[in-house]
Specification:
This protein has a domain at 2-133 and 215-280: Alpha/Beta hydrolase fold, catalytic domain (Rossmann fold), CATH 3.40.50.1820. Helices cover 33% and strands 23% of the residues. It has helices at residues 45-51, 79-93, 105-114, 135-142, 154-164, 173-181, 201-209, 217-221, 240-246, 270-280; strands at 2-10, 13-22, 30-34, 56-60, 98-103, 121-127, 132-133, 150-151, 184-186, 192-194, 214-215, 227-232, 254-258. Strand 9 (184-186) and strand 10 form a beta hairpin.
């Protein structure tokens, strides 16, 4: 694994986006893996290691998360800025085409790019996200987003992560420790805090405030590349009827359901990674 960063531009100025990279840096076959709303690129360590023999795997920390900078203007936290940053990243990588794996928010960014003319995305995996975001899931996420809790030690932080991320499913202690360690940091006073900008909640709450589902079907219908949709069987964000429609509209996605998991499958075991690998390597 290698750590790096790329400088990106927003209307408020320049910011740095961190990313981790696995596999041969000269491999023209690139897989970009993008995380969910409050997570980091290190969520994909297990998958990236498994796929690094076939791909140059690149896992960015979306701006405002992980080791990336925080935006000065919190109103800019949204898909347009994230997609623009990813285009800058692809230019840095000198990647003409890529395969894309996006969990939740990372899938929405992938949808936004895949729907464009001359898109660089040639295969797309949407992990527990689709063109209809339910108001129920937005309300659940809004209950903890932006609260910025602080903890006395890493164990307390892990307990909180286990609570708010219970839909991830029945993970091992080592997996929970991994998922905690890379989304927190030590503050100047020795406390443990999350390493995402609480300001990401500001535009999110504007979307949530209407109390309505978010409809992105026109975006999905514009996608033409081969697409796979993963759904956690207990997900409240991606409904079964939405997946059924995704299989017959737009790119007519292949679908797979992960038992015993809600939002979202974390791709930390061989069986889940195999589903993704079989699809991506089919061409």
């Amino acid at each position: 694994m290698r750590e790096n960063s790329v400088q990106c531009l927003s209307p408020a100025g320049l910011h740095r986006m961190a990313f981790t990279e696995w596999g041969d840096a000269d491999n023209p076959r690139v897989l970009v893996c993008v995380h969910g709303l409050t997570r980091s690129g290190r969520d994909f360590d297990f998958l990236a290691e498994r796929m690094s023999g076939e791909y140059r795997v690149v896992c960015p920390d979306v701006v405002g998360r992980g080791k990336s900078d925080w935006l000065k203007d919190k109103a800019l936290y949204g898909i347009p800025q994230y997609a623009a940053d990813m285009v800058t990243l692809l230019a840095r990588l000198d990647a003409q085409t890529v395969h894309w794996l996006g969990t939740s928010m990372g899938g929405l960014i992938g949808m936004a790019l895949a729907a464009q003319g001359n898109t660089p995305i040639s295969r797309l995996v949407l992990n527990d996200v689709g063109p209809l975001i339910t108001a129920v899931s937005l309300q659940r996420i809004g209950e903890y987003l932006g609260q910025a809790p602080r903890f006395d030690n890493l164990k307390q932080a892990e307990t909180f992560v286990r609570f708010v991320s219970a839909p991830f499913g029945n993970l091992t202690d080592l997996q929970w420790q991994h998922l905690t360690r890379h989304v927190v940091r030590s503050a100047a006073d020795g406390k443990i805090e999350f390493c995402y900008d609480p300001g990401i909640s500001e535009p999110f709450r504007q979307d949530q405030g209407a109390g309505l589902d978010i409809d992105l079907w026109p975006l999905y219908d514009a996608i033409h590349c081969p697409t796979l949709v993963l759904r956690g069987a207990k997900s409240d964000l991606l409904l079964p009827e939405t997946v059924a429609q995704m299989a017959i509209r737009g790119p007519r996605a292949q679908t797979a359901e992960i038992p015993g998991v809600g939002h979202a499958p974390m791709l930390l075991d061989e069986a889940q990674v195999a589903i993704v690998g079989d699809f991506l390597l089919a061409d």
